Structure formats: structure tokens, C-alpha cells
Amino acid sequence: MQKPILILGACGQIGTELTYELRKKYGATRVIASDIREGNENLMDSGPFELLDATDYNALEEVVAYYEISEVYLMAAMLSATAEKFPMRAWNLNMNSLFNVLNLAKEKKIDKVFWPSSIAVFGPNTPTDNTPQNTIMEPNTVYGISKQSGERWCNYYHQKFGVDVRSLRYPGLISHKTMPGGGTTDYAVEIYHQALSKKAYTCFLNKDTKLPMMFMDDAIRATLLLMESDPKDIKIRSSYNLAAMSFSPEEIAKSIQTRIPDFKIDYKPDFRQEIADSWPNSIDDSQTRSDWGWKPEFDLERTTQEMLDNLGKKPN
Ligand code: SER
Fold this sequence. Notes:
By secondary structure, the chain is of the alpha/beta class. It contains twelve helices and twelve strands. The strands form three sheets. Strands 3-2-1-4-5-6-10 form a seven-stranded parallel sheet, with helices on both faces. It has a three-stranded mixed sheet with strand order 7-9-11. Strand 5, helix 6 and strand 6 form a beta-alpha-beta unit. The chain is globular. The termini are far apart.
């Protein structure tokens, strides 16, 4: 039987869907959701929940002991755009929560850790097309610096202390169940909402800014696949490149227009343009595919269809 799992940051964009999926798979009572604040009604009703600050080691240790937690998914983080506004808060949250979880694993209080990294680990000197797994990484954002440092610490804890930590460099994630918060790729979710509600969207990135993206179902599937893989197949303990599709605001707008012909887009780039410009256009995840069998299922067309179909059913 699956030993109890704890999700930190369960009310966020990825955490919410991860909680649903893990509960579906292993049973609601085996998956403890936690966050610094309560989540939406569906999430709160779906199983056990703890109010928990991931940067508070003692509180975390208590919850882990109480539920006899074996695996932790650390999804609490401050994303790229917000982190530029609050650098020290971002650093404290993103790093201290990671150290807390890695130290619990080092002390053998938990057996396995998932920690998300990001395409933000790359920087302006990284090759932008088909960015390889191993390449120049000189992130110039607060968020990217925290993810790059986190990757090095994950690798260090694995090598020095045998900690079973697993990680993916997520691209921008697109979901109809939860909104992203404070990221540079958030436009690719907002655009679908506004296409339905206003038939118009003002994009905060330029029309030709191409970024790696992924539909949430693929991201969750990749995460569970990695967590269930045999440790001998996991050759990378910093973080794996992960890819599905890449597109620009103009391309996503066109795919919406095939279904909503009078949808209009205009462009008013803000400070997030500079962040996006420092990230890759597309990612080479061939090692991820060969090490543990990753393969995406959603391209842009299928994503647009899923987003518009599902958001169209919801009341505004
Ligand atoms: N989606 C994230 C962001 O835009 C990148 O990991 O900050």
C-alpha cells in the first residue's frame, strides 16, 4: 500500500491538480494537502488538509511525524514575476522550504522528495533553441537563481547523503482548473479566459516571444512517472529537462481564432518581457524520454481545444 504523501503548496496551480491526481490514485486519506492558506472548496473537500508554512521546520516535522509521511512533494514557491518584486522573500521561501524537506530526508524522516525546477534555470547565454540538458546556465532572475541553486543542492544531498530527490524543469503550465500566480508564462492561461469572456486579450509579452509550454495533464503525468520510476533509471538528480510544445503569443492567438474567429489580441510588453527574453524558445528533453520513458500527449491544438471546451462550461 502507498505510504502517506504530503503536498506542500497544495493550493497552488500545480499543487491543486497534483493533489486530485494523487488522491484518485492512492485514496484521499493517504494524501495530505497543506498550504499556508486554504484552497478552493473542491480541494478542501477532497481529503485531509493542514495549514502549514513550508519554511517552518518544526511545524513541518510535526506534520510528517503525525501522519507518518513517506513522500513529500514541495510545490510551494514564489514564481518569476513576483520574485522580481520581492527578491528576499522569494529566496527565503524557495530555498528554506527546500532545505527543510531535504534535511527531513537526510535525517531519514521521509523516504522520497519531489521538487520542481523550471526553464528559468537557463539564462541569456544559454543556447535558445532545443536547449540541451547540460549547457550554459547563467540565470539572471531571482526565481531562476533560486531554482538553479536548488538543483545544485538536490544533487548534493543525493550524492552526499543518498537522498532520493527527483526533479523536473517544468515549462510554462496551462490548466483550466487552477490559475497560475505571478509567473511570466501566465499569459498562456489568461488568454483563454479572456478569449471566452471578452473576445480580446492584451498580452504582456511581444507577439513573437516563443516559450516552452505544457498542458497540466502532461505535467502531472510526467511527475508521477518520474516518482514511480526505478531509482536506477534516474540518472539525473539535479533536474530533468521536460518538454511538450513551444509557441509564441501570436501562435496561441491564431489557434484560438480557429475556434473564436472574432478574438482579438494586442501587445503591451511589460517587465516580464525581459524575463521571457532570457529563457529558451524550446527544450531538448531526449534524455528524459530515454531514461524513464517520457512522452507528451498535448500539443497546442489539443491544449486550445481542452481549455476552451472546459472553460466554456464554467460560469464566469
Ligand atoms: N511558469 C514559471 C514562471 O513563469 C516558470 O517556471 O515563473
